[in-house]
Amino acid sequence: MTISDEAPSAATQQMKENMAKIEALSQRLVAALAQKKAPNPALEGPGADLYLTTSSAFLKEMMDKPSRILETQVNYWAQAMKHYIEASEALSQGKLQAPADPGPKDRRFSNPLWDTHPYFNFIKQQYLITAKTVEDSVAAIEGLSPIDRRRVDYFTRQIVDMMAPTNFLPTNPDALERAVQT
Q1: pLDDT of 96 higher than 80
Q2: Is it the case that residue 5 has pLDDT exceeding 70?
Q3: What is the pLDDT of residue 89?
Q4: CA distance linking residue 26 with residue 23, whole number of Å
Q5: Which end of the chain is more exposed for a tag (fewer CB within 10 A), N or C?
Q6: CA distances from 182 to 86, 168, 174 (A)
Q7: Model confidence pLDDT, tens digit, residues 104-155
Q8: Distance (Å, whole) CA 66 – CA 162
Q9: CA-only gyration radius of the chain, Å
Q10: Distance CA 65, CA 102 (A)
Q11: Which of 104, 122, 124 minimizes the C-alpha distance to 166?
């Protein structure tokens, strides 16, 4: 027997061992997947049915009452630009303080810098203006069942809250102060 005759035999044996390992691992994987619990649908995000129902109602309203959508957009941009102009004027005059804050108090913005620092106040005010517009727009959608209405309101609040500037390091004075300390 030559070396070349032994080499395929050793390679064949190694291949058999590797295939046996793959088979054993595959069986373990199948067993693990079989024991996996089914996800709880109550903990899942909104399904396609809610998206379809809501978008249909929204599009129907857009077609039936286009003036409402335009009015909402005009009001939003008027508020956002008014606040932007106030903040810009204050900075151009050398005032390093935020403009007056007429809005309701939100516990997420308890750090005094949200009210006194022009940058943080601008971010906060723009967020609050946008959040109110989104929530009001969703609340104005007609044609939803009470259950779908609650679901849409809930998920809208979740998304709006998720986008709060308090959730991001560069726009959260508390987080920035903590980062500097550590």
Answers
A1: no
A2: no
A3: 85
A4: 5
A5: C
A6: 35, 17, 13
A7: 678 899 999 998 888 898 999 999 999 999 999 999 888 888 988 888 899 8
A8: 29
A9: 29
A10: 31
A11: 124
- Length of the chain equals 182
> What is the C-alpha to C-alpha distance for residues 52 and 36, in angstroms, rounded to an integer?
30
Q: Which helix (H) or strand (E) holds 155?
A: helix 146-162
Instruction: Dig out the tokens for 105 from the structure.
Output: 């108090």
- Whether 112 contacts 174, CB under 8 Å: no
Q: What is the pLDDT of residues 13-63, one digit of tens each?
A: 899 999 999 999 999 998 888 888 877 777 777 777 878 888 888 888 888
Torsion, Cα of 38, 43, 45, 50 (10° steps): 100
Distances (CA, A) of 98 to 78, 86, 108, 124, 179: 19, 9, 18, 11, 24
Q: Which two tokens stand for residue 102?
A: 């007429």
Secondary element (H or E) of residue 34: helix 3-35
**Dihedral, CA of residue 110, residue 115, residue 120 and residue 123, to nearest 10:** 90
SS (H, E, C) 84-142: HHHHHHHHHCCCCCCCCCCCCCCHHHCCCHHHHCHHHHHHHHHHHHHHHHHHHHHHCCC
Residues 123 and 165: beta-carbon distance below 8 Å: yes
* Overall pTM > 0.85: no
Contact by Cβ (8 Å): 143, 57: yes
